[in-house]
Design a protein that fits this description.
This protein has about 80 residues and is an alpha+beta fold. It has one domain. About 50% of the residues lie in helices and about 10% in strands. It has three helices and three strands; from the N terminus they run βββααα. A three-stranded antiparallel sheet has the order 1-2-3, covered by helices on one side. About 10% of the residues are buried. The model has no long low-confidence stretch (mean pLDDT about 90).
Length: about 80
Protein backbone atom coordinates (compact mmCIF):
# COMPACT_ATOMS: atom_id res chain seq x y z
CA UNK A 1 0.00 0.00 0.00
CA UNK A 2 1.11 3.51 -0.69
CA UNK A 3 0.51 6.67 1.31
CA UNK A 4 -1.16 9.52 -0.59
CA UNK A 5 1.45 11.87 -1.99
CA UNK A 6 -0.26 15.04 -0.70
CA UNK A 7 -0.21 13.95 2.95
CA UNK A 8 1.93 16.29 5.05
CA UNK A 9 3.85 15.04 8.06
CA UNK A 10 6.16 16.57 10.62
CA UNK A 11 9.03 15.09 12.61
CA UNK A 12 6.98 15.20 15.81
CA UNK A 13 4.13 13.13 14.35
CA UNK A 14 1.63 15.72 13.12
CA UNK A 15 -0.19 14.40 10.05
CA UNK A 16 -2.35 16.56 7.75
CA UNK A 17 -4.55 15.54 4.81
CA UNK A 18 -5.08 18.71 2.73
CA UNK A 19 -7.76 17.04 0.59
CA UNK A 20 -10.07 16.60 3.59
CA UNK A 21 -8.67 19.09 6.09
CA UNK A 22 -8.26 16.28 8.60
CA UNK A 23 -5.29 16.30 10.95
CA UNK A 24 -3.96 13.63 13.26
CA UNK A 25 -1.41 13.49 16.03
CA UNK A 26 0.89 10.51 15.79
CA UNK A 27 4.16 9.76 17.49
CA UNK A 28 7.64 9.99 16.04
CA UNK A 29 7.45 6.34 14.93
CA UNK A 30 4.28 7.08 12.97
CA UNK A 31 5.97 10.06 11.35
CA UNK A 32 9.02 7.96 10.43
CA UNK A 33 6.82 5.23 8.93
CA UNK A 34 4.86 7.73 6.87
CA UNK A 35 8.05 9.38 5.63
CA UNK A 36 9.45 5.99 4.61
CA UNK A 37 6.21 5.11 2.84
CA UNK A 38 6.13 8.48 1.04
CA UNK A 39 9.74 8.01 -0.09
CA UNK A 40 8.74 4.91 -2.02
CA UNK A 41 10.26 2.28 0.24
CA UNK A 42 8.53 -1.07 0.08
CA UNK A 43 6.79 -2.69 3.01
CA UNK A 44 9.60 -5.24 3.17
CA UNK A 45 12.29 -2.52 3.28
CA UNK A 46 10.47 -0.59 5.99
CA UNK A 47 9.92 -3.68 8.12
CA UNK A 48 13.56 -4.70 7.78
CA UNK A 49 14.70 -1.25 8.94
CA UNK A 50 12.44 -1.53 11.98
CA UNK A 51 13.74 -5.02 12.80
CA UNK A 52 17.33 -3.77 12.47
CA UNK A 53 16.79 -0.67 14.58
CA UNK A 54 14.38 -1.75 17.32
CA UNK A 55 14.04 -4.67 19.70
CA UNK A 56 10.91 -6.20 18.18
CA UNK A 57 10.08 -9.69 16.96
CA UNK A 58 8.93 -10.19 13.37
CA UNK A 59 5.56 -11.67 14.34
CA UNK A 60 4.78 -8.69 16.60
CA UNK A 61 5.90 -6.29 13.88
CA UNK A 62 3.59 -7.98 11.36
CA UNK A 63 0.60 -7.68 13.73
CA UNK A 64 1.42 -4.03 14.44
CA UNK A 65 1.87 -3.36 10.71
CA UNK A 66 -1.59 -4.76 9.92
CA UNK A 67 -3.12 -2.55 12.64
CA UNK A 68 -1.21 0.43 11.22
CA UNK A 69 -2.56 -0.21 7.71
CA UNK A 70 -6.12 -0.40 9.06
CA UNK A 71 -5.65 2.93 10.83
CA UNK A 72 -4.26 4.58 7.69
CA UNK A 73 -7.10 3.21 5.57
CA UNK A 74 -9.74 4.39 8.06
CA UNK A 75 -8.10 7.84 8.10
CA UNK A 76 -8.23 7.96 4.27
CA UNK A 77 -4.44 8.34 4.02
CA UNK A 78 -3.75 5.52 1.54
CA UNK A 79 -3.86 5.56 -2.26
CA UNK A 80 -6.51 3.38 -3.80
CA UNK A 81 -4.91 0.48 -5.62
CA UNK A 82 -6.03 -1.05 -8.86
Amino acid sequence: MKIKSNIATSENGFIFNPATGDSFSGNTMAAALLLAMKSGKTEREIKQEILDRYDVKADQLNRDWEDWMIQLKEANLLELEG
